[in-house]
Write a structure and sequence with these properties.
The structure is a homodimer. The model of chain A has no long low-confidence stretch (mean pLDDT about 90). Chain A contains ten helices and no strands. Chain A is elongated. In chain A, helix 5 packs across helix 6. Chain A folds into two domains: about 40 residues, Orthogonal Bundle (Arc Repressor Mutant, subunit A); about 140 residues, Orthogonal Bundle (Tetracycline Repressor, domain 2). By secondary structure, chain A is mostly helical. Chain A starts with 11 loop residues before the first helix and ends in a 12-residue tail after the last helix. Helix content of chain A is about 65%, strand content about 0%. At the A-B interface, helix 8, helix 9 and helix 10 of A face helix 8, helix 9 and helix 10 of B. Chains A, B: InterPro entries: Homeodomain-like_sf, HTH-type_TetR-like_transc_reg, HTH_TetR, KstR2_TetR_C, Tet_transcr_reg_TetR-rel_C_sf. Chains A, B: Keywords: DNA-binding, Transcription, Transcription regulation. Chains A, B: It holds the Pfam family TetR_N. Chains A, B: One of its GO terms (molecular function) is DNA-binding transcription factor activity.
């Protein structure tokens, strides 16, 4: 054990938090067990006491992000009522989960597919997107969304907007982790657009 | 010169294209001159004949993206008429430039700020975002955009949507590089939202 090593007081969860921070900072490919050991301040063998590999840390991290996202689709409210209302609920909850699990979702969104774990994460992400695209399609069929936008394309733009939150959202210490203002801005921009509707019958 | 080296038939521009492809594939940090030499099929000294450093290739690549984007703000139509019309024009042209210069803008959007060139690129990106945010602010002041969304936040969501195009847009060979459908979907989603407006006075 190196002289810099502290006593290992990590749980699997708290070690994962450190690893996710390093992965987001250096990129997963650019991170070695040595980097993780230095960031955690414990020896490499202490890390191996918790997890068998760097890839297992990645798997647990993206699983945490994916579990949060898929749970949104399985909430009771996501299965009831008109498709547009279910879609709005899913968009709202997705934005919230993204902020709640910010570093985990950030990592998930940067995964590129060089390892089995990364390929699995990409498959799961695509599955999530497809389930949301089905909701968009259903809402178009029910006449609640504009029919001229292709559902696949609309879903991509919707996620483009939601996922971009990881690029700039940094809650201040002491503030709630989830910003209601951000959630409302996403909902109103996505569903009603930025334009102020013309007031019909107003004076010229 | 290694035995794999071909005769150097590159121009500065065609070598840059190869380099941008490698940067996007491996990440800028993960790319060595050796990788560039292998991808181009010419020796490292041939590459040095064109450019003094890897960072200079990065600078030229992100400059190409930034020049395209800033040119949008300086087009005559971006300075005339109501702010909302100028904003719509800027959003449309930004989406077009993104598709026209897809690998260059992709690289620009992935830059993280580890070198002077990357920091410069981040400063320029922020400047671009601020100029668009000013247009959003002006359009709100003129009563053409909803006042309840914060201009800074609206701009971020707008760019989230536009910039996400680099993640999934891949023109098929033989098709136009710019997809009119994608541009129209961005404009209609951003300004009017996905929701079908209620028909006033319709039967219940």
């Amino acid at each position: 054990m190196g002289s810099v090593a502290r006593r290992d007081v990590y749980t699997a969860q708290s070690l994962l938090e450190v690893a996710v921070g390093v992965f987001n900072e250096r990129g997963y490919d650019g991170t070695s067990m040595e980097h993780l050991s230095r960031a955690a301040g414990i020896s490499k063998s202490s890390i191996y006491h918790h997890v068998p590999s760097k890839e297992e840390l990645l798997r647990r991290a993206v699983a945490h992000a994916l579990d949060g996202l898929f749970a949104v689709l399985d909430e009771p409210a996501a299965g009831e009522g008109r498709a547009v209302a279910r879609l709005e609920r899913v968009v709202r909850r997705t934005a919230e989960v993204l902020m709640e699990r910010l570093p985990y979702v950030t990592l998930l969104l940067r995964v590129r597919g060089n390892t089995d774990t990364e390929r699995w994460a990409l498959v799961r992400r695509r599955e999530f997107d497809q389930r949301v695209a089905e909701l968009v399609r259903a809402a178009v069929a029910e006449g609640d969304l504009r029919p001229e936008v292709d559902p696949r394309l609309a879903t991509r733009l919707l996620f483009g907007m939601i996922n971009s939150i990881v690029e700039w959202y940094r809650p201040h210490p002491g503030e709630p982790v989830v910003s209601g203002d951000v959630v409302e801005a996403v909902i109103s921009t996505a569903f009603d657009g930025l334009r102020q509707p013309a007031v019909s019958g107003s004076a010229p």
